[in-house]
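pinned: reference chain
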Amino acid sequence: MNDAGERIQLKLLNVEDAEILLDLQLRNRAVFEEISASDRSDTFYTLEGQVAILERWAKAREEEKRYSFGIFLKATQELIGEISLFELVLEHTDKWIVGYVLDQGHNGKGYMSEALQMVLKFAFSEAGIKRVEAGALPDNIGSIRVLRKAGFQEIGRQNIKIKGRWKEHVMFAVDCPERA
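pinned: its structure tokens
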């Protein structure tokens, strides 16, 4: 899917995007590390590390278990964020999660709300996903606002490991409109 909204465009990320993804990660390292449950070792912040991640994401996309999109400004084609849908299997139950990051210089401009709407349209219309869940730290008011604006409803709390420490997250979910 390469989908364009009013001000942004979503493109599936590929190995060719490793340099610009690395640049995004390096510019926002301190912020992203505070919210990401993924491994952020020093290797992550290398071109080889980003290539390896993009290769894993491509394999997962072929298996229809992950869809990772770059968020690009339409006017400049600058990569300003990343949004992914990925499937987890927990206690014999499949669960689709959406996770996202946005360059801190672009926060508060509505880009993530636009991107999340496009990803949900993809999830429900093209990928056949019936329910998407997301988590946010309770003090991440911007992310919570984005989720609620997209129709997500709070479903509880869950501890998620961030930088080796368990942190409570507010959990949200939205169902495919046909199921609602």
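why pinned: The chain is about 30% helix and 35% strand. The longest strand covers residues 79-90.
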